[in-house]
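Hi,

I'm pasting everything inline rather than attaching a file, because the server keeps stripping attachments. The sequence lines come first, and each chain or strand is labelled.
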Amino acid sequence: DVKVTQSSRYLVKRTGEKVFLECVQDMDHENMFWYRQDPGLGLRLIYFSYDVKMKEKGDIPEGYSVSREKKERFSLILESASTNQTSMYLCASRGGGSSYEQYFGPGTRLTVT
Amino acid sequence: QKEVEQDPGPLSVPEGAIVSLNCTYSNSAFQYFMWYRQYSRKGPELLMYTYSSGNKEDGRFTAQVDKSSKYISLFIRDSQPSDSATYLCAMSFSGGYNKLIFGAGTRLAVHP
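And the predicted assembly:
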């Protein structure tokens, strides 16, 4: 079974702090994703990576950056957390080829106060 | 206007009922249609996947796509309390493997 793990289930940070969210997958997948999930808005793509050190902006990249130094690990960075970044953050991975299926981690609920 | 519209519910049904979950979309280029199920405090998992128009059945679940109306549906027969979850539709265009567009999700509660 594909396993996608996220470093924290719940996180509380203060406004202005730098925040790191970590994601690890164990299936040697090329593609990894960061989404945020908000009520009424569904999942919105922040960034994705299709290879080590390669990244592309999603629909809402402002205020976020990412890092992928190893194939299995994809990090989301909030450079200076703000209250409007309070949300559920979901990491996902996808193998190569023509499969559309993404495998999701359990999510990190981030609260910025 | 959102590219994908989905009624957020909640939808509450008795055990054994037939459930119909729906999404509408605006982009006629979408070719691949998916339904994900998300249990509370878990990440979404792929439930059904269809290409273009038509029906696909898997056990108690049937996914239906009507491209002429830009409308997709998920039917659950003989619903069970274990079906209680949020159901998200997702779709993409041909080759858009890394660009899924998700609906907001419909919360379903099946009560005994």
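Chain B has a mean pLDDT of 94.

If the labels don't parse on your end, tell me and I'll reformat.
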